[in-house]
Specification:
2 domains, 8 helices, globular
């Protein structure tokens, strides 16, 4: 009796999956466009930069060139930077921030660093040899008006057709969200920092 029930259940499952595959194949047949995307990782949850670096690693795996500009993180020695910089011919990593605003405590200096980082980002984005350019923590400098959002939007319009641009950082501006093709919001559910656990190598940097 059990074997008969299993056979019926397996047959029902196979028929259901066949219908699902047919529907999926019809949908996929309509997806024919390939172009560079503007991708935003935002939200209060952990993992925005991590997700962007994962995309960089995917590009490297396909032999594509990646540019990374870090707007805020300053002189941190991070695991992802050490790993990605080992691909000297495919990855250009520019850490141009001087740390978070509460560390520098100098708005004029922060603005100067952000402007310099945006100029470097522009050089990368306009260079068609880059398949992906990651603007890490750009949302933070936009939030504090260190660079005008209009300048970023103009820069996005200048990117080559096949270039992907990834923007990270919490509190993404509405103008950036509207321009983006793909937006992911990281939601904070629980974080060990609240229990006194400090940032740790391999997990946080």
């Amino acid at each position: 009796m059990s074997d008969t029930k299993d056979e019926a259940r397996n047959r029902e499952h196979a028929e259901k999956m066949a219908r699902r595959k047919e529907a999926r194949d019809k949908i996929m047949a309509t997806k024919t466009e390939e172009r560079g995307l503007v991708i935003v990782h935002t939200g209060k949850g952990k993992g925005k930069t991590t997700a962007a670096m994962g995309m960089a690693l995917r590009c490297v795996g396909h032999g594509f060139k990646v540019g990374i500009v870090q707007f805020v993180k300053g002189g941190w020695t991070t695991g992802e930077r050490a790993a990605l910089e080992s691909f000297k011919d495919l990855v250009v990593f520019k850490t141009m921030g001087e740390g978070f605003t509460w560390e520098t405590q100098d708005r004029a200096r922060d603005i100067a660093a952000a402007e310099k980082a945006l100029a470097a980002a522009g050089d990368m984005i306009r260079d068609p040899s880059y398949r992906m350019v990651i603007l890490d923590e750009l949302n933070i400098v936009l939030r504090y008006d260190y660079v005008p959002v209009e300048a970023v939007l103009r820069l996005l319009e200048e990117k080559p057709e096949q270039t992907h641009v990834v923007i990270t950082g919490r509190n993404a501006r509405p103008e950036i969200l509207e321009r983006a093709d793909l937006v992911t919001e990281m939601t904070l559910v629980k974080h060990p920092f609240a229990e006194g656990v400090k940032a740790q190598p391999g997990v946080d940097f």
